[in-house]
């Protein structure tokens, strides 16, 4: 430890050093630090001394004046021992730290947590990462409000919405001028665009915003509930009825007595909006001569003649000022007058011409429409009085028209009904010159019934014979009602013999593994992929597996699950092997990589423990048709063959 002496120590030692340099009593000069014959430094603890280590060196556990053992808590500040204070105790928080290295004052460079300091950067200045009082690291979220850094709050986190914003610059109160989470606005006070609760201001929000000129705001757009949709107060005379206080409101505060001249009836409201008034008024055309009228004929028209149908009459002009003496015409006078379409001299609406007359012209009873009429006659298709029937002609038919199976007709004189029959396409008989064939229906068949390879039928019009083909199981096309079609009706291939089920599938099997402790080193199991490889896998605990076998390396303490994983890894790692293994717990599931019956192979094993269970590869189907068999894909054929031009055949040479 380096020797450190304070100035006060050197002052005490200076006389002694001079004596030592000059020599005393003729004795040899003592070396620096060597103890004198008696006193402090002689190695003997005497009265007044608390220690004496035989020298007068600081910082070695005994002070140069032998009055301190240079331990913290002895009440003496031993600077050489690194002490800055010593209050005689070894407790923090009393003005001197427990190790005497700090006087526990902010700015001394020591973080005295016992007096609440969070930091101490050796100064008492704010804004440098440690506050002037050493109580804050000046970070938002430390629970201390650093006002000098702009913080208005600090709740110990950096989360919005809990009363202190994430940046500590807002107490998240409405009216602080800061738009916080959940606030639409915050102008510091209510404004035309912001309500007092910091929501966006608009008429109808239920808050009266005087800054926006609102007199009221009831939160709706009903004009008739005391507060109008523009947030002004509803008053009598504004033209909008306040349902809560007014019986009516006609837009004024006058009690009307009658409708304006020219209006027959009207509704008004009294001056206080308390009573609805039902009023009447005079007008030209009301039939009563009012002040200013000479006459009133009950209408507002200037007639030029009497109403149609009146020979003479009196009337009034359109403005009720001149009486009129008029004449008029009427329907049935034999003259076509204005407004009449015709006038045949009577007021009868004829309905038909006389019997035997095919057509005629007349006028209706009101002279409003000219009538084009027809008359009844035999052969007009309508049975009239005196007729037994009428089929629209005067011919006695002998049979129904071609294409009609049965019909009713009438004789030439309309005196008797005839019940007839006829021939038609689709009756199953070729009985008309236009028919080439007749298969008993009117359908253009497009194919033979399923299961019939070829057939002949007739088209819908019986004009041509159709030579058709049909779908059958084994034609290589999947038709309606078929689940599949592999081009043959044999049990082999990807489809069943009756084309009713897809049967292409890969063989599967399984192995139930045991822990390594239950498996003998060298025990084996053998799996074949049915195509090219039959592999024997050997459990290998010491790296000595036989060369002809595929090793399954096992650690001595491997669990059953780990053994299952090792088995799967060995199978999947076998080059070119057509079986894939998947381990799940202690079970290894096996699947042939190719579909077909070739994958159905037994699994043999030499494990003595009966709990080691193997299940042979089964369930493989398809991919088994022999050479010369019809097919639609390679998957239908034996793996040694390919489907070439629809036939299982030997692959061509490369």
Segments where pLDDT lies below 50 for 5+ residues?
A: 1-37
pLDDT averaged residue by residue: 86
Proportion of residues in β-strands: 5-15%
Helix and strand run: HEEEEEEEEEEEEEEHEEEEEE
Please count the beta strands (DSSP E, at least 2 residues each).
Answer: 20
Count of DSSP H/I helices: 2
Rounded Rg: 61 Å
Residue share in helix: under 10%
**Per the principal axes of the C-alpha atoms, what is the gross shape?**
flat
Largest sheet at a glance? 4 strands, antiparallel
User: Strand arrangement, largest sheet?
Assistant: 15-16-11-18
End-to-end separation: 90 Å
Structural class: mainly beta
List the helices and strands and how they pair.
Layout lengths: L6 H16 L242 E5 L6 E5 L31 E5 L6 E5 L31 E5 L6 E5 L31 E5 L6 E5 L32 E5 L6 E5 L38 E5 L11 E5 L5 E7 L9 E4 L6 H13 L6 E6 L2 E6 L11 E2 L7 E6 L23 E3 L2 E3 L5
Parallel strand pairs: 13-14
Antiparallel strand pairs: 1-2, 3-4, 5-6, 7-8, 9-10, 11-16, 11-18, 12-13, 12-17, 15-16, 19-20
Can you give me a brief rundown of this structure?
The protein is mainly beta.
Description:
The protein has 654 residues and is mainly beta. The chain has two helices and 20 strands. It has helices at residues 7-22, 560-572; strands at 265-269, 276-280, 312-316, 323-327, 359-363, 370-374, 406-410, 417-421, 454-458, 465-469, 508-512, 524-528, 534-540, 550-553, 579-584, 587-592, 604-605, 613-618, 642-644, 647-649. The strands form eight sheets. It has a four-stranded antiparallel beta sheet with strand order 15-16-11-18. Strand 9 and strand 10 (465-469) form a beta hairpin. It is flat, with a radius of gyration of 61 Å. The relative contact order is 0.03.
């Amino acid at each position: 430890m380096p020797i450190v002496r304070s100035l006060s120590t050197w002052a005490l030692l200076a006389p002694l050093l001079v004596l030592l340099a000059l020599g005393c009593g003729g004795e040899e000069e003592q070396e620096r630090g060597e103890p004198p014959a008696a006193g402090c430094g002689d190695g003997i603890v005497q009265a007044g001394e608390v220690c004496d280590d035989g020298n007068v060196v600081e910082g070695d556990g005994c002070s140069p004046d032998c009055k301190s053992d240079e331990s913290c808590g002895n009440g003496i500040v031993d600077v050489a021992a690194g002490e800055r204070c010593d209050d005689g105790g070894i407790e923090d928080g009393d003005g001197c730290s427990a190790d005497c290295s700090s006087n526990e004052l902010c700015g001394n460079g020591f973080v005295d947590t016992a007096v609440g300091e969070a930091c101490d950067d050796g100064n008492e200045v704010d804004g440098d990462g440690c506050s002037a009082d050493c109580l804050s690291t000046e970070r938002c979220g430390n629970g201390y409000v650093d006002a000098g850094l702009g913080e208005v709050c600090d709740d110990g986190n950096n989360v919005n919405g809990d009363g202190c914003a994430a940046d500590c610059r807002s107490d998240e109160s409405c009216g602080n001028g800061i738009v916080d989470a959940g606030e639409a606005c915050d102008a510091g006070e209510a404004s035309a665009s912001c309500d007092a609760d910091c929501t966006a201001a608009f008429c109808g929000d239920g808050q009266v915003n005087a800054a926006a000129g609102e007199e009221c705001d009831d939160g709706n757009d009903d004009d008739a509930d005391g507060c109008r949709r523009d947030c002004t107060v509803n008053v009598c005379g504004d033209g909008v009825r306040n349902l809560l206080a007014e019986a009516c409101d006609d837009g004024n505060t006058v009690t009307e007595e009658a409708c304006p001249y020219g209006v027959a009836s009207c509704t008004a409201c009294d001056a206080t909006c308390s009573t609805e008034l039902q009023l009447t008024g005079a007008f030209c055309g009301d039939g009563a001569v009012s002040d200013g009228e000479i006459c009133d004929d009950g209408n507002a028209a200037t007639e030029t003649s009497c109403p149609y149908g009146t020979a003479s009459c009196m009337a009034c002009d359109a403005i009720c000022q001149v009486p009129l003496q008029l004449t008029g015409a009427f329907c049935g006078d034999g003259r076509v007058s204005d407004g009449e379409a015709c006038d045949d001299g009577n007021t009868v609406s004829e309905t038909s011409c006389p019997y035997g007359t095919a057509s005629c012209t007349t006028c209706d009873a009101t002279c409003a429409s000219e009538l084009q009429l027809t008359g009844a006659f035999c052969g007009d298709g309508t049975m009239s009085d005196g007729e037994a029937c009428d089929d629209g002609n005067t011919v006695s038919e002998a049979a129904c028209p071609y294409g009609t199976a049965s019909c009713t007709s009438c004789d030439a004189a309309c005196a008797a009904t005839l019940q007839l029959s006829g021939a038609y396409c689709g009756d199953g008989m070729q009985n008309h010159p236009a028919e080439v064939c007749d298969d008993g229906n009117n359908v253009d068949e497009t194919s033979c019934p399923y299961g019939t390879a070829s057939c002949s039928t007739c088209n819908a019009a019986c004009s041509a014979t159709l030579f058709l083909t049909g779908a059958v199981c084994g034609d290589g096309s999947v038709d309606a009602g078929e689940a599949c079609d592999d081009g043959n009706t044999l049990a082999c291939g990807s489809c069943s013999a009756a084309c009713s089920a897809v049967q292409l599938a890969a063989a599967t099997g399984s192995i139930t593994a045991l822990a390594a402790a239950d498996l003998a080193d060298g025990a084996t199991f053998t799996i074949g992929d049915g195509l090219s490889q039959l592999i024997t896998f050997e459990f290998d605990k010491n790296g000595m597996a036989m060369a002809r076998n595929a090793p399954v390396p096992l650690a001595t303490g491997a669990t059953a699950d780990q053994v299952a994983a090792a088995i799967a890894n060995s199978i999947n790692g076998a080059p070119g092997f057509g079986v894939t293994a998947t381990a799940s717990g202690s079970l290894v599931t096996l699947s042939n990589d190719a579909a077909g019956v070739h994958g159905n192979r037994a699994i043999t094993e030499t494990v003595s423990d009966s709990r080691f269970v193997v299940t042979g590869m089964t369930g493989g189907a398809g991919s088994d048709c022999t050479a010369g068999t019809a097919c639609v894909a390679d998957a239908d054929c034996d793996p040694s063959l390919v489907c070439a031009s629809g036939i299982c055949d030997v692959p061509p040479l490369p």
